[in-house]
Amino acid sequence: MRFPWRWKRVRISLIGGYSWQKIRYELDQFYAVGPGITATTRVEDSSNAWRLGLAYEIPEYALRASLIWNSAVDYDMTGTVINPAIPFAGPVAGKITMPQSVEAKFQSGVAPAGLPLARSNGPTGALPTTCRFARQLCHLPARSHLR
């Protein structure tokens, strides 16, 4: 959502919005007790997030700069763990928070065929690396099925 204000050749916009996000996580843990024995943990949740920012534009030069803040997102994940080695299948739950972030963008049209861009964004806090579940502790691996 945008609310622009014009002053001479400059346009200033207030940018804001709401998003609904869904996360699914699947972890396969391999055991050395037998061939092909894996425990599988599947959890998912959805949550709400917000964004708010300002944009400064001079359309005649194709100049635009913006600064946007994204809220932190809390997930209360629930799902199942299946362990054929025991055998066990049961509920599992965990909580994780993705930190808030700030995104800064700058672009300008200096030539008919060129449009230089600059962009920087990142979290304002540390990204989570572990998530404690009620039945087990899982370390989020670099090659997980996080979508």
Write down the overall mean pLDDT. Answer: 77
Bin the strand percentage.
over 45%
| Element-level helix/strand string | EEEEEEEEEE
What is the terminal-to-terminal distance?
26 Å
Radius of gyration: 22 Å
- Tally of helical segments: 0
Task: Explain what the structure shows.
The protein has 147 residues and is mainly beta. Helices cover 0% and strands 67% of the residues. The protein contains no helices and ten strands. The protein has strands spanning 2-7, 10-30, 38-58, 63-70, 73-83, 88-98, 101-107, 117-123, 130-132, 137-139. The strands form two sheets. Strands 1, 2, 3, 4, 5, 6, 7 and 8 form an eight-stranded antiparallel sheet that branches. It has a two-stranded antiparallel ribbon with strand order 9-10. The chain is elongated and about 70 Å long. Mean pLDDT is 77; it is low at 135-147.
Question: Main traits of this protein?
Answer:
147 residues; mainly beta; 8-stranded antiparallel sheet; two-stranded antiparallel ribbon; 10 strands; 67% strand; disordered C terminus
Describe this structure in a few short sentences.
The chain has 147 residues and is mainly β. The chain is built from no helices and 10 strands.
Topology record:
Blueprint: E1 2-7, E2 10-30, E3 38-58, E4 63-70, E5 73-83, E6 88-98, E7 101-107, E8 117-123, E9 130-132, E10 137-139
